[in-house]
């Protein structure tokens, strides 16, 4: 009898141990939620897909594989677009306007030659006035700084990117920086709304108003006016050169940052480099009617010929951007599953691409993510 009791006791301990070990997985896959979807929320959605140049087809192809493995309710309307085209094809614009959402790989911007950037064309025509890049530490990815979780919100339609340049006389070029009250106010409102909805504590405006007193002064004036409507959120201001120095020395002090166009490009890429590199930072561009999701940091997002040839591009940033897209489309459970799987792969440290010091191929990372999705 004593032997039987001991056996039952041992069996009970084993069952409790196994149940405890499986509990995190059960909690993730069968958790109770209070979310009540509206009728039709589960209807599959069409999304415009632009694979792009360089590593773009590799990393967007990774997203397609993972979406299929998850049985995500997404259908891709794919268009072949390259950065050296003089204009974004009309059928692509019609697709984005019809679907409202686009996933885009990197499009190279030719230097000189009179060819304008398709990225800028897209933002202007769709009025994607807010660019959002989330730069944060990922467990398992070693970086110089800890506790980094910065959201850079950048005005996307004017500033130095207005493209108003002309040659006054031979050898003298005039480039106009355009700042308007309307665009400054709406990007400030978006930044404060984001902070409020995501329980962020501080919004910092980045500027150079000590030199550009009228242009950046107008931007600051707009941010200050909007800040008064959000008394629960702390508001700071910082000059852009000091901002860059502070970013590389104490990045953990920043929370949400709102910037004019050019500064935001520089600040977002700097913050991405601090938090782990351009290959792991998600982002997107959003306006009143449309949203385009892509890698958060632009530096190197088109990639080198060697990476493409060896198929070792890092798909993490694009996968995390696609999780942002899923949440935007009101598929939060799919977004959670994807983000959890990606973070597990990084935490395990077994599948690491070349940009993070490893040798894994894009496909090996995709296979690991799919395996962790379950």
TrEMBL record:
Native source species: Carex littledalei
Main location: mitochondrion
Function comment: Performs an essential role in the oxidative function of the citric acid cycle.
Name of this protein: Isocitrate dehydrogenase [NAD] regulatory subunit 1
Isopropylmalate dehydrogenase-like domain residues: 46-369
Annotated Gene Ontology cellular component terms: mitochondrion
GO MF annotations in UniProt: isocitrate dehydrogenase (NAD+) activity; metal ion binding
Family annotation (Gene3D superfamilies): Isopropylmalate Dehydrogenase
């Amino acid at each position: 009898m004593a032997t039987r009791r001991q056996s039952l006791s041992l069996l009970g301990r084993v069952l409790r141990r196994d149940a405890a070990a499986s509990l995190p997985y059960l909690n993730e896959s069968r958790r109770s939620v209070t979310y009540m979807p509206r009728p039709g929320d589960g209807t599959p959605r069409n999304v415009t897909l632009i694979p792009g140049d360089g590593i773009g087809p590799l990393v967007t192809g990774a997203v397609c594989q993972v979406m299929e493995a998850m049985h995500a309710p997404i259908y891709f309307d794919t268009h072949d677009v390259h950065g050296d085209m003089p204009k974004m094809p009309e059928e692509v614009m019609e697709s984005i306007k019809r679907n409202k959402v686009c996933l885009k790989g990197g499009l190279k911007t030719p230097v000189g030659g009179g060819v304008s950037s398709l990225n800028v064309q897209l933002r202007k025509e769709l009025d994607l006035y807010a660019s959002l890049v989330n730069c944060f530490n990922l467990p398992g990815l070693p970086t110089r700084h800890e506790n980094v979780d910065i959201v850079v919100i950048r005005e996307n339609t004017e500033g130095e990117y207005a493209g108003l340049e002309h040659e006054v006389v031979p050898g003298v070029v005039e480039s106009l920086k355009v700042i308007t009250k309307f665009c400054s106010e709406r990007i400030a409102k978006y930044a404060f709304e984001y902070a409020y909805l995501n329980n962020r504590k501080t919004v910092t405006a980045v500027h150079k108003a000590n030199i550009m007193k009228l242009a950046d002064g107008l931007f600051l004036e707009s941010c200050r006016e909007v800040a008064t409507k959000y008394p629960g959120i702390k508001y700071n201001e910082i000059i852009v050169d000091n901002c860059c120095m502070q970013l590389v020395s104490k990045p953990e002090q920043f929370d949400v940052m709102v910037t004019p166009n050019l500064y935001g490009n520089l600040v977002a890429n700097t913050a991405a480099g601090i938090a782990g590199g351009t290959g792991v930072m998600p982002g997107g561009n959003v306006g009143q009617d449309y949203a385009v999701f892509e890698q958060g940091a632009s530096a190197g997002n088109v990639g080198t010929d060697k990476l493409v040839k060896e198929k070792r591009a890092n798909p993490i940033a694009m996968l995390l951007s696609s999780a942002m897209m899923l949440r935007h489309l009101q598929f939060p459970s799919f977004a959670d599953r994807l983000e959890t799987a990606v973070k597990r792969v990084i935490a395990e440290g077994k599948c690491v691409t070349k940009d993070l010091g490893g040798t894994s191929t894009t496909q090996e990372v995709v296979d690991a993510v799919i395996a962790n999705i379950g």
